[in-house]
Specification:
The protein has 293 residues and is an alpha/beta fold. It has 2 domains: 3-124 and 274-289, Aspartate/ornithine carbamoyltransferase (Rossmann fold, 3-Layer(aba) Sandwich); 128-271, Aspartate/ornithine carbamoyltransferase (Rossmann fold, 3-Layer(aba) Sandwich). The protein has 8 helices and 10 strands. Strands 1-5-4-2-3 form a 5-stranded parallel beta sheet, sandwiched between helices. A 5-stranded parallel beta sheet has the order 8-7-6-9-10.
Length: 293
Amino acid sequence: MSLYRSVTDFRVEDVDWILDRAARIKAGEPSAQLPPRAVVGLAFLESSLRTRTGFAAAAIRLGATPVEVLGVRESAVSMPESVDDTLRTLAGYCDAVVARVGEHLVLPAGVQVPLVSGGDRGLVAEHPTQALIDLFALTRLAVPVGDQVVALCGDLRMRAARSLLLLLEAYQPRRLVLVTEPGLHEGLTVPEGLATLCEERTLGDIGDVDALYVVGIPHGALDEDGRTRLRVTSAHLDSLPPRARVYSPLPVIDEMERDALHHPRVRMFEQSDDGLYVRMATLELVLGLGAPA
């Protein structure tokens, strides 16, 4: 069965279908009902707020029942059960599984249902469904993606940023701006198809940016001086064009000043809200109700 660990595991026509379907659900078109008594497994072996509850709500709104596993089985007298065995067990009871694991996600032997990553770990960690939500947000702007100047600010090694960069290679903006620090993109290779569109800048030079994507910066990744250089302020947002919007995969801890969170160009929580429709469309697709093969 299919593993959707990376955004590259979705065909371009799959992504197009998800974006279109999400827009139609948001506009009020009835969602497709999944097969009677459909069950969606949610294996969240690491903490999650938006992805876990978003997929649970998406499953319920599609008429399915979500079943959650929030940790591997272990006890004082038993070694922890493996991630593979945990996923294989859950998959045996479900029609699809969404999983967040603390390691590189693979398809365990014997799994016969679609397995969708809700974020994994490792050198090539990704968060493909978050990138689909991010791309959906970009498509809602007045300017088509191909005409946009998109800026990513923060730690570009984060899994959501890596997935979005891969997706933008297929849906190329006019220009890609990277606002970061040297230590926050070590080991990251910008996709080849974006190389000629890419340039590095500071937050003081974003006056032509249509979409500013604020990526998290893990605790300890930078000293306070570095964090300050990447902290988005209301003054930075005032410098954006009136049509510009600010997005983030969330959470935002100190990557933005608190008063900047309420700036009229900030759309992070609307982006999070729209994630429901993208997750509904994603479940429809992987369960066979989407784009043709």
